[in-house]
Amino acid sequence: MGSSIIAQKESRFKTTQEDRVPKLHYRLRKELWCLAFIAPQLALFLLFTAYPIVMSYVYAFFDWNGYGPLKEFTGFDNFTETLKDPIFWNAFRNSLLFMMWLVLVQVPLALLAALLMNAEWLKGKIIYRTIIFLPVVTTTAVVGLVMRFVFGAYKGLFNEMLLKIGLIAQPVDWLGSVDTALLIVVIVGIWKSFGMKMVYWLAGIQSLPKEVFESARIDGASSIQLLRYITIPLLLPVGSVIVLMSAVNALHVFDLVQTMTGGGPAFKTDMVDVYIYRYAFSGSGEARVGFASAAGVLYGIVVMGISILLGLFVRLSGGRRNQKRF
Predict the structure, then answer these.
(1) What is the architecture, at CATH level 2, of domain 87-138+179-325?
(2) Residue 265 DSSP one-character state
(3) Contact 306/297 with Cβ under 8 angstroms?
(4) Could you tell me which residue ranges the ABC transmembrane type-1 domain spans (predicted)?
């Protein structure tokens, strides 16, 4: 009796082992196919993203013009020179101002637009959403070039409109004045990515549980009370993520600024991305790739720090929401 039980167990063990072999072979073959499909994307990422990032840290310690071997090791001289350069701090200040304006103005306005686009009484929602979202899918460099003509001093569309309605007596050089250039860049930046933030908010609103709103309406809550006590509190975790993404994206605005103003006038719209590009590629005289890399490394550290702080804020807001639930 005992020997038969042992024999049955051994046969079962053999069959399970035999079944595992083809299953393991199938899984390995499946994983290899997955690797084959992602290999081109991985190769492009390593070649055009990972490798430049790693090498930028190497170049930052050399006085290198972008050609030939790395010979002149300078240590931390490039970092020291960057930190002592007032133009760098001016560009850093402008980048932070641009980020703050986009977060403080664009995010709340996008929330209002999303609430409007989600209203049951609004007709033609798809058309309105498409119109608002169109600038997002438009190339930023093209938008910058078009806006140069729109806000141009000579026969610019914006000046022509203001002249016709009598708000100004003569054309204004909106992008050539130190008083208005940064403001115009901020306005265009808000308009360019406004649709994406609206879609984020709209997705968050549509994911809220409808039962809560129905119960509140049965209890006699008004639309303002629903917005104040239910919609906004439930959207706080989503809103913190939107703020995080908006802030990080707003810190990189090279293509828009480069095509609209090039950092001028008098470095009034100069951003760190434009500052780095100017020294690495298009500066007067010999290019300074090592110095530009040092500036990029410092700016990358700052952006990483801001991302970490905002990420902690997102986690804390999510934790507080869970505590309130229980």
Answers:
(1) Orthogonal Bundle (1.10)
(2) S
(3) no
(4) 92-310
Do 185 and 261 meet the contact criterion of CB atoms below 8 Å apart?
Answer: yes
The span from the CA of 318 to the CA of 238, in Å, is 9
Residue 246's CB: how many other CB atoms inside 10 A? 22
Where does 85-231 have alpha helices with state H?
86-101, 107-117, 125-137, 140-150, 157-165, 181-206, 210-218, 223-226
Give, to the nearest 10 degrees, the angle between helix 140-150 and helix 157-165.
40
Q: Which of 61-75, 99-113, 239-253, 270-284 has the highest mean pLDDT?
A: 99-113
Q: Mind listing the pLDDT tens digit for each residue in 43-79?
A: 999 999 899 889 999 999 999 888 888 888 988 999 9
User: What is the rounded CA–CA span in Å between residue 195 and residue 200?
Assistant: 9
Q: Which DSSP category does 219 fall into? A: T
- Assign 62 to helix, strand or coil: strand
Half-sphere exposure of 264 (CA within 13 A, CB side): 11
Listed by start position, the domains of the chain span 1-43, 87-138+179-325
Contacts of 269 (CB under 8 A, 6+ apart): 94, 181, 182, 185, 257, 260, 261, 263
Could you tell me what percent of the chain has a pLDDT over 70? 88
